[in-house]
Amino acid sequence: xxxxxxxxxxxxxxxxxxxxxxxxxxxxxxxxxxxxxxxxxxxxxxxxxxxxxxxxxxxxxxxxxxxxxxxxxxxxxxxxxxxxxxxxxxxxxxxxxxxxxxxxxxxxxxxxxxxxxxxxxxxxxxxxxxxxxxxxxxxxxxxxxxxxxxxxxxxxxxxxxxxxxxxxxxxxxxxxxxxxxx
Amino acid sequence: xxxxxxxxxxxxxxxxxxxxxxxxxxxxxxxxxxxxxxxxxxxxxxxxxxxxxxxxxxxxxxxxxxxxxxxxxxxxxxxxxxxxxxxxxxxxxxxxxxxxxxxxxxxxxxxxxxxxxxxxxxxxxxxxxxxxxxxxxxxxxxxxxxxxxxxxxxxxxxxxxxxxxxxxxxxxxxxxxxxxxxxxxxxxxxxxxxxxxxxxxxxxxxxxxxxxxxxxxxxxxxxxxxxxxxxxxxxxxxxxxxxxxxxxxxxxxxxxxxxxxxxxxxxxxxxxxxxxxxxxxxxxxxxxxxxxxxxxxxxxxxxxxxxxxxxxxxxxxxxxxxxxxxxxxxxxxxxxxxxxxxxxxxxxxxxxxxxxxxxxxxxxxxxxxxxxxxxxxxxxxxxxxxxxxxxxxxxxxxxxxxxxxxxxxxxxxxxxxxxxxxxxxxxxxxxxxxxxxxxxxxxxxxxxxxxxxxxxxxxxxxxxxxxxxxxxxxxxx
Lengths: 182, 477
Known about the structure:
The complex is a heterodimer of chains A (182) and B (477). Chain A contains five helices and four strands, in the order βαβαααβαβ. Chain A has 182 residues and is an alpha+beta fold. Chain A is elongated, with a radius of gyration of 25 Å. Chain B has 477 residues and is mainly alpha-helical. In chain B, helix 3 (78-102) packs across helix 8 (258-284) and helix 8 packs antiparallel against helix 13 (368-395). The interface between A and B is large, with 71 and 67 residues.
């Protein structure tokens, strides 16, 4: 691959520990960048404040799943037991809410759990087949003991030199330009 | 009276001098290094038992449930006992992964992955029994509300149908929860693997996870919601299993204490099973720094508490039998104690009432060998509890003329033994190919993970920062 065909995807910087990563993230945020992200092997306490993240909307997705499950299960049971296939069992009423509780609960939880799992993946845009960050050799440390900040070239304020300078001022141990090979 | 106050720190969750990197190496080394010979031996034995199970099920499908020891009063025998026993064992995994997560118990990270795997495989073993117990397994789809040419629907007022929904939901949610927890660790294995096939397989499983904090942010929310969903779910599952019994009118079954009593028993037996497996695995795989004695002691405490709850429930059963003034209830309790299955009752009393009392002693709670023995005794005891409930209540019910003694046949026994083959086949595959400790979560509870534990000026980790700030109070006169 020659350098002319490569497009700059962003600049990646490595920091020594969670503390430096949080400090770097808040200074990137303060400098006005929008398209940036931090990478660490575990979620770091206080990072959401440093990066200025809003609350995750996942709760609403899960609520949707839960309500679908609840209404669906109740509707199915009322329709089957009350209208489609009524069965006289010891003279009990056909539509009998207490006996619907266990199944309604289970289906509510089931669909809520599906919504939580797949909603989380959708919000994170996973599964993702290709990510230019993996072109960087060092980046494999992000799942082990490396702490990284990445500013994307798509950001309005992006300029390779300025970003590298910003990372240097924050004490990055390693700074590298990330290329998109496609 | 003067008292000296001293700061007593919580013991460190991870023993030894570990960095993030050494934790990765310690846990990732097992799935990424060549298969040890001992593993093949164990896997071979598990496979033989698994084939035995498949053979026993095959013969059952061929010949019908008549090959089991079921007789006229005792229509539920070992199959139902084993079902309840295996489901109960599964409960510890969800308790550790969900309830202890909501209570912010950091020590759960040492064992949660392990216990969740156990949950999934135990529920698989459990699910087999009611399925094959229907006799005509080829029409098992009748339990699901599927439109069919007979225009028939399942009876939603039957506890047995509630059970179908409870156990299948429990299995699915446990699997989702487990997989969500595994995603970051798959990414770690993907980045560590040298072998091409391993790299691609772990890569696919990790779904392209990078450790991005924007992803972690949604991920943590999802994990918390799943824990919040799994918590009432785990309590509901054994409650519904107990409804299989309690909603009927058989003396000894028709009792409102059943749901809490079943749930406590499930957690009790589940913790025992986690301990049995953990004490072997930590030795073989050298994970003593993570699955350490402090964690074993905490698990023993949970076992002591739930064991005593179960013992209290036995006491209550006797009390209610007397207090209700209902002669059949009194009769069945008396028959437990001195009747045809009294041997089972006294084994149960020894295993579940006497054994947990040893755990009042700190020395015993921290002794690996004794804990191992206790954990096995507890599981035997909990099997006998289900035996007494299922068999003793059924075979000596209202009419003495209808009583009959139940004993298992050869096929009952090898079907049960065979489920261990299924369990261990999957469990050994798990130990071999997946990270048995949640790598990301263990790193997250280490003091180095918290930015507040670093010095403001030098940005170096400072152990002093993990201690609370002591404010000297001035004496006021």
